[in-house]
Structures are given as C-alpha cells and as structure tokens.
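Working notes for the structural subgroup meeting. M.R. asked for a predicted model of this chain before we commit to crystallization trials. I am recording the input and output together here so anyone reviewing the notebook later can reproduce the run.

Input as submitted:
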Amino acid sequence: MATVAIRNGINVDQLVATIGAIQENASVAKMTFKATTLWQEGTHSVAEIGPFTHAGKADGSRREGQFKLQGDEPPVLLGNNLGPNAVELCLAALGFCYAVGYVANAAAKGYEIAELSYEVEGDIDLHAFLGLGKGRPGFTEIRVRSRVKSPNATREQLEELCQYVQDTSPVRDILANPVPVHTNLEVL
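Returned structure, recorded in token form:
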C-alpha cells in the first residue's frame, strides 16, 4: 500500500499531480468563482458562496449557498457590527491567499511549517467614498506582517518563499494591479 505524503496538511502527491495535469492541459487551470450578495437592512448584507466552474464544468464539491458571510459596518459607519465590513473581508482574503500559497509551496519544497500568521491592515480616507473629495475611495496603503516558524527551513529559504508567495498570490495581484470590472444593473 502506497503512503500519501502529507506535509503542512497538504497532500503533496495531489499537488504534484495537479501541477502535472495543468502542464499537460492548460484548460485545467481555468476557474470561475462566484459570490451572491443579498442586502438585508441598513448596512447589513449576506454573501453566499457555493459552486464554481473548473475547466469549463461545474464543480460538484459544493452545494448552492454552502458558505454564508455576514457583512456590516461598525456603528461609526452606520452599522450594527453584524459582520466585518467589505474592506476588512478584503484584508482577510489577502491573508488567506498568502497562507495557502505559503503552506502549499513550503510543502512542495519539503519545509515543515510549525506556525504561520498574517496581520494585514490597510488605511482608508473616507472623503472620496462619501463624495467629499477626490482621491481613492479604497485603500491608500496595505501593510502585511507575516510570522513563520519552521523546524527545517533556513531564514533565507523562508524569506525567498515569502517573496515567491507575494509574486504569485492571486489576491495580491487583484489588489496591486488594475482588473477590469464590468457591472450591469437589472431594474426589477
């Protein structure tokens, strides 16, 4: 019976097989993700995330609306703290993406990760969002503090991996580079 190589909670054999499948057939790398947001009241909304498309086919591993996220604002921004606000979810998404990239790539390189965390913070000036001035309505700067502990990787290896993860992170790319966003309105 063959043993499965698991490192950092990642099935390394499956990771290598996935990379091989993409190298053989580029369409395997194509994915479309979707979230549906339903406004509730005031600044409170609920987002549902479920099935996605992989290589042009619906993936059956998730059911419709499987994940529900609450979004709201703090009282200072007219909300009731029923969930994090959208920009906080954006910061969390960057931390999630970095963590996935770091542990999976560490596993592929044979590095064991004992601890990993990301503290992500961003600055916003509300003037543009409130229509009171020009400038960016979004973050003016995002700062990430990462901490890692490994029993078998050197500091240089961990730093090199940190840079690689930044260079290949989909969420960092979305935040750092313009992405076309097309919005259509259907009036009911």
